[in-house]
Amino acid sequence: MQQPTTAAPAAQQPVAQAPVNAGAAPAAQQNPVAGVPGQNGQQRERMPLKGFKYTIINGVGKKENGTINTESIEDARSFLTQLEYQILSLEERSKMDIDINIGNKIGAADLSFCLTQLSTYIKAGIPLVDSVKILAKQSSKQILKKNFYQIVYELLRGQSFSEALLAQGNVFPKLLINMVKTAEMTGDLPSILDDMAEYYTSMDNTRKQMKSAMTYPIVVLSLAFGVLIFMLTYLVPQFSSMFQDNGASLPALTQAILNISGFIQNYYLYMILGIAAGVGAFIYCYKNIKSFRTVVQIVLMHIPVFGKIIIYNEIANFTKTFASLINHGVFITDSMEILSKVTSNEVYIRIINKTLVNLGKGDSISSAFRGEWAIPVVAYEMIVTGESTGQLGQMMEKVATHFQGLHKNIIDQMKSLIEPLLIVFLAGVVGVILISIVQPMFAIYQTVQ
């Protein structure tokens, strides 16, 4: 295995340097496929890839189905044979045969595990191609297995590791691809893989915290909504007929509840269609209309407590990613371009683009953050300190740690606050309906007396 070299400062890295693809070249020479340099040293022309589906007997004797994109069926057969699989069937895929999970991104938890494993294999002296093969064989998820096998094939074609990742479309994050590019220039791939594994572990923990905080209120609100619909469509109508039979005078509250109950029973289908159409229109506009998405994000970020959760999460992700890029020698302008693709929040994308403009004018990074309502004062001051001391990467790590702690604390506070609020809300709704039913019953009782 090649010994990793010490990462040089970004300014000393030659831009035109060929990327280091540790382990790929030897594997390609042992088992050449189309597109790999031949014995005369000339690069064979790469052909467009075609999809093939296969059925094989894997290394543990089990039948396995899958797909692979290669230049020809001979390449596909050679590739599967190299993996020591027994081929039962191999044929080209029809145009109607498509992957339903195509373009799906790999989750942060899977990324963290796979990157840690890959780094361990490379440190143990296993070539990169063989390391990715091991990842593919041990993966139980079809999307991981397919993409790792495809990466192996791209490496055997002579592509660099970052190019092989990029060839998988949107499956792997842009941040990871750019960090791998940096590793190919510095020759320190295991170190960057470890850092990225730690980064995605942190991202996964944050996602789990958010999911845990939102699960309880969603479940309680769903149950409360179900109870409310049951009472309005089944319980209230029964009492309504009783009130009419006894000629009881109905208070305004009772009459309002009965009107709501009647409306739901008569127009429930239209209500369901209207809600579905509204949700669908909202999702479509949010994904496709930038101005609409920006307005929604600004409104959410100004909601008490919930807005702080969004801001703290975005700042923690931004500074942690920025620190990883800076500490591994990526140029600041390149880092900002990567950061603009990592976040989906239009507010921070605007700030990042503003930073790029300011850097082009020779201004500092902090000048773009000055006076921005979405940048907490603490974060701004620490960025200024990092620039003035020349330790921007280290300061960004401290900012990320600080806001990750704030994010966790505010989520814990929200979880403890939501429970009593939901109980009060549910009790209030049920109480109003019960009062609207009890009031006319007292009137009926007095009439009977």
Would you write up a description of this structure?
The chain has 449 residues and is mainly α. It has 16 helices and 3 strands. The protein has a 3-stranded antiparallel beta sheet. A hairpin with a 5-residue loop joins strand 1 (50-57) and strand 2 (63-70). Helix 3 (108-123) crosses helix 4 (128-138), helix 11 packs antiparallel against helix 16 (392-448) and helix 15 runs antiparallel to helix 16 (392-448). The radius of gyration is 30 Å and the shape is extended.
In short:
With 449 residues, the chain is mainly α. The chain has 16 helices and three strands. Helices cover 68% and strands 5% of the residues.
SSE map:
Blueprint: H1 24-30, E1 50-57, E2 63-70, H2 73-82, E3 86-92, H3 108-123, H4 128-138, H5 142-156, H6 161-166, H7 174-186, H8 189-246, H9 252-288, H10 290-301, H11 306-327, H12 332-342, H13 346-360, H14 366-369, H15 377-389, H16 392-448
Antiparallel strand pairs: 1-2, 1-3
